[in-house]
């Protein structure tokens, strides 16, 4: 879909290298105690508490997720957990979790990288071996893994990570109701996505921001939130979001969402307070039909479906811009509610176009 040309390698590489923030190690010992044992360069005490809880090492080790990721306080964390094997030089440890903190969203990149660090730790029993790899990646953008060739940061394009989650599957799952998801994200609403299992949640929730591809903004994604204060506070500090939960109690927390998506039964519900702003009109119906048609087309891959939806969005934005009132000298043309009313559209369409203009910073508020 996108591969950096020679001219782009320089700046792209620099940006990629600056993304890593820290690495850390949490261990579970033979008596079941969980300890934070290493970090580089440093991790705050609050971050330690959060990451230790997220690793789930203190719970039944049989259920520890092998890889998970999320966002907290504007940084991404990736946690890879492993069981210590017989013969590893770690006699007092039964399980450990390797944590990477970074500024970018790229699960494939950090899963590969953390696998290399975990292997190095299992083999040597020493964080020094991991630090070597970490520093190589920070300074050179690559490291030589023992069994699997060279790990190259620049092979993990961010746009590829954005297009990895399947919008096509989501549209096929929800059919014409997918328009509720699209509209909610486009209008910068709060979405809560529920799935009973973490792996199912992570696989699906990452695709939602791709419904608004033109924004390329995965900062609104909170993949895996628990109903605890430190996480909810962080979530609420972001005015709008797409937040994944595995705790069914979240459904009763209507203060957290405008739209609730249950991935386990394919139901979408709009909270009472958001019903008016989510009213559907002809514009929605047309987009819904177009989305479903693309997604049902076996010849179309996920990336094409994302592109087709982006095309529809662009048409919509062009329509919105065409309704703008010419600006006075120097200002940019803005859409006013009065100008929209003069067009005598159906209320649902008028309401939607004005909200969209507001979400895109094109409306006079
Ligand atoms: C080596 O790389 C391949 C392809 O990326 C991957 O499927 C495999 O799991 C890797 N093996 C190890 C030991 O990292
Ligand atoms: C992404 O969205 C968030 C939340 O609206 C916003 O604060 C941030 O500026 C956006 N980032 C970019 C790069 O547009
Ligand atoms: C989601 O759907 C499943 C299957 O119908 C249902 O059992 C469950 O209660 C729903 N969960 C939530 C949180 O809505």
TrEMBL record:
<dbReference type="InterPro" id="IPR042431">
    <property type="entry name" value="FAM45"/>
</dbReference>
<dbReference type="Pfam" id="PF08616">
    <property type="entry name" value="SPA"/>
</dbReference>
<keyword id="KW-0967">Endosome</keyword>
<protein>
    <submittedName>
        <fullName>FAM45A protein</fullName>
    </submittedName>
</protein>
<dbReference type="InterPro" id="IPR037516">
    <property type="entry name" value="Tripartite_DENN"/>
</dbReference>
<feature type="signal peptide">
    <location>
        <begin position="1"/>
        <end position="23"/>
    </location>
</feature>
<dbReference type="GO" id="GO:0015031">
    <property type="term" value="P:protein transport"/>
</dbReference>
<keyword id="KW-0344">Guanine-nucleotide releasing factor</keyword>
<dbReference type="GO" id="GO:0031267">
    <property type="term" value="F:small GTPase binding"/>
</dbReference>
<keyword id="KW-0732">Signal</keyword>
<dbReference type="GO" id="GO:0005770">
    <property type="term" value="C:late endosome"/>
</dbReference>
<comment type="similarity">
    <text>Belongs to the DENND10 family.</text>
</comment>
<dbReference type="GO" id="GO:0005085">
    <property type="term" value="F:guanyl-nucleotide exchange factor activity"/>
</dbReference>
<dbReference type="GO" id="GO:2000641">
    <property type="term" value="P:regulation of early endosome to late endosome transport"/>
</dbReference>
<feature type="domain" description="UDENN">
    <location>
        <begin position="1"/>
        <end position="365"/>
    </location>
</feature>
């Amino acid at each position: 879909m996108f591969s950096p040309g020679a001219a782009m390698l320089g700046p792209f590489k620099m940006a990629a290298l600056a993304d890593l923030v820290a690495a850390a190690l949490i261990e579970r010992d033979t008596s079941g105690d969980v300890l934070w044992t290493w970090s580089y360069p440093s991790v705050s005490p609050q971050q330690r508490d959060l990451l230790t809880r997220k690793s789930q090492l203190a719970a039944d080790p049989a259920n520890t997720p092998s890889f998970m990721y999320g966002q907290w306080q504007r940084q991404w964390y990736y946690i890879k957990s492993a069981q210590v094997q017989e013969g590893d030089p770690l006699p007092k440890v039964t399980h450990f979790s390797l944590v990477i903190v970074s500024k970018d969203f790229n699960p494939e990149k950090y899963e590969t990288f953390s696998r290399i660090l975990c292997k190095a730790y299992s083999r040597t029993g020493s964080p020094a071996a991991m630090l070597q790899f970490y520093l190589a990646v920070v300074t050179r953008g690559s490291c030589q893994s023992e069994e699997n060739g060279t790990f190259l940061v620049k092979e993990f394009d961010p746009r590829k990570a954005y297009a990895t989650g399947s919008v096509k599957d989501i549209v096929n799952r929800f059919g014409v109701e997918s328009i509720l998801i699209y509209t909610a994200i486009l209008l910068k609403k709060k979405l809560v996505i529920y799935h009973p299992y973490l792996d199912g949640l992570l696989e699906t929730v990452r695709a939602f921001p791709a419904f608004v591809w033109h924004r390329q903004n995965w900062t609104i994604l909170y993949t895996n939130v628990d109903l605890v204060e430190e996480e909810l506070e962080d979530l609420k500090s972001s005015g709008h979001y797409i937040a994944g939960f595995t705790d069914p109690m979240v459904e009763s927390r209507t203060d957290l969402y405008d739209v609730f998506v249950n991935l386990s039964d394919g139901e979408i519900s709009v909270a009472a307070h958001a019903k008016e702003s989510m009213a559907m009109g002809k514009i929605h119906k047309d987009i819904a039909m177009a989305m479903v048609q693309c997604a049902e087309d076996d010849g179309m891959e996920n990336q094409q479906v994302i592109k087709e939806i982006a095309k529809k969005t662009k048409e919509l934005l062009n329509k919105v811009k065409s309704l703008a009132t010419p600006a006075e000298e120097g200002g940019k043309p803005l859409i006013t509610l009065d100008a929209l009313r003069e067009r005598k559209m159906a209320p649902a369409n008028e309401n939607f176009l004005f909200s969209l203009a507001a979400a895109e910073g094109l409306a006079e508020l």
